[in-house]
Every structure is written in structure tokens, then in C-alpha cells.
Amino acid sequence: MVESPVYGQIRTGVCKLFGVYPSSIEQRKGGTMSAQQALDELKVGNKRFVAHLHHEVPTDNHNRQHELIINQKPIAIIVGCSDARVPPELVFDQGMGDLFVIRVAGNIVMPSQIESVEFAALQFGPRLIVVLGHSQCGALQATIGALKGPPERVADMYPTVVEYVRPSVDAAIEACPNGTDDEILHTATHANVRRSMAELRKGSVSLRRLEAEEGLMVVGAHYAIETGVVEFFEDAKVGPVSKEKTTL
Ligand SMILES: [Zn+2]
């Protein structure tokens, strides 16, 4: 189909605003891209997603499939929730082979998640790790509900997830004793992301070395199901104890 001049001008302007999605994995520079470059890619990709400009990627994936037979060069590792409403490739407008994704309910970090992240960081070279929490997280909601119910019920409900998430929920309840469930959920979700960031660092000598010597960055982020917007924690590189202002 021939593109009209007017549409071409609009498209050029849009691409200047939101970036252009490269069609080749070689152009993506995954494995050699710095953490900040990868973070910028994800930020601009989410802007494309929010602006409903993410339609180019699926057609590129068909070509990518053949390129990826030999190798993969993901630009980032994502530790996210299994929630069907938060698919990282879509919300960051990335294609096949761009993201190494570990998804588990509540984006919790246990030994198997740490080893998966280590494997990707050491084998494929991405220098950015994003722990991605989200609004309306069922794992957090279930934990809040369990803690408000009879004590004996707590251990019965998803014991591993509840055990992991519980300190973040307890801290949120303590921080806002008169808070609504939504306020507690929001605070607990951010705290839970920070906990997972800390667990990754605590549990892996390799990740700490990569962070200290090779520019690895562990970043916290929050996806709003209501708007499609991902907010990255401003204190991304500092760790789990600082303020939670965001930049996008
Ligand atoms: Zn969730």
C-alpha cells in the first residue's frame, strides 16, 4: 500500500516524539546497550503503548523469529507479575527477543527467580533489570484479605506468596493505619517491588558484582492497569529504602 504524503508527515512527527522501533535485533544492540539506554528504550516504548502506536511490532516479530534461531540479545530483564493484564512485551512495546521475562504471582523473588535473572545477565549481557509491580495486584489483594481474616486462614491461602508479600503489607498497614484498602494496596505494592529488588541483590554475588563493576542497574517500576502508564522509581539505583517519586 502506498503511504500518502500527509500520513508520512504525521508519521515522521510521531516517530520523533515516540522513537522508532528497529526491525532487526542487530539494530537493537541488546547485550551491548547500557542500562540507561535500555531504560530509555522501555520508557519511550511505554509511551508508544499508551499512545496506541504499538502496531508495528507484531509484523516485525515474524522476521525476528528467524534471526533469533541462532542467538538472543535481550535489552532488559523483567521480573514481573503473572497477571494477564501486565504483559511486559506489550506494555513496553517490545518485540520478540527484546525482553528476558520472569513472571510469577506478586513479582516475588525466590531462589529460582534469582537464578533465572543471573542466567540471563551472565549469558546474554543485558545490563538492565526491571522489577515491575502493578495496580490491582491479586497477590497483594489476597494477602491483605488473608491478614484481615481469621489468623488460621493466612497459612492456607497461597502460603509461599503470602509469606513473601506479608512484610510489605504489614509495613503498609503500619505506615497508614487509617488508610483505605486501596491506599494500603498501593503502598504495599511499591514496598513489595523494593523488597524484590533487595532480594535480587542479597541473593546473588554475580548480580552485585555486575552492578558494582559492569554497569548493571536494578530498577523498580509500577504499571497502572487503569492508564497503561509505567512509572519508574526515581531512586531506581539506590535500593529499597528511599523515596518513591517517579520519572517518565
Ligand atoms: Zn499481580
What's the gist of this structure?
The protein is an alpha/beta fold and 248 residues long.
Word description of this protein:
The chain is of the alpha/beta class. It has one domain (5-247): Carbonic anhydrase (Beta-carbonic Anhydrase, Chain A). The chain is built from 11 helices and 6 strands. The chain has helices at residues 5-18, 25-28, 35-50, 57-67, 88-91, 111-124, 138-148, 151-154, 159-175, 181-203, 205-213; strands at 76-80, 99-103, 128-134, 217-223, 230-233, 246-247. A 6-stranded mixed β-sheet has the order 2-1-3-4-5-6, sandwiched between helices. Strand 4 and strand 5 (230-233) form a beta hairpin. Helix 9 crosses helix 10 (181-203). The chain is globular. Residues 238-248 have low confidence and may be disordered. It binds zinc ion (ZN). Residues 81, 83, 106, 134, 137-139 line the site of zinc ion.
CATH superfamily: Carbonic anhydrase
Counted by DSSP, the helix tally is: 11
Please name the CATH architecture.
3-Layer(aba) Sandwich
The major pleated sheet works out as: 6 strands, mixed
Approximately how much beta-strand content do the residues carry?
5-15%
How would the global form be characterised? globular
CATH class: Alpha Beta
Q: Helicity, in percent?
A: 40-55%
Count of individual domains: 1
Low-confidence stretches: 238-248
Through-space gap between termini: 35 Å
Task: Tally the beta strands.
Answer: 6
The strands making up the biggest β-sheet line up spatially as: 2-1-3-4-5-6
Ions, cofactors and other ligands present here are: zinc ion
Mean pLDDT: 83
Roughly how many Å is the radius of gyration? 19 Å
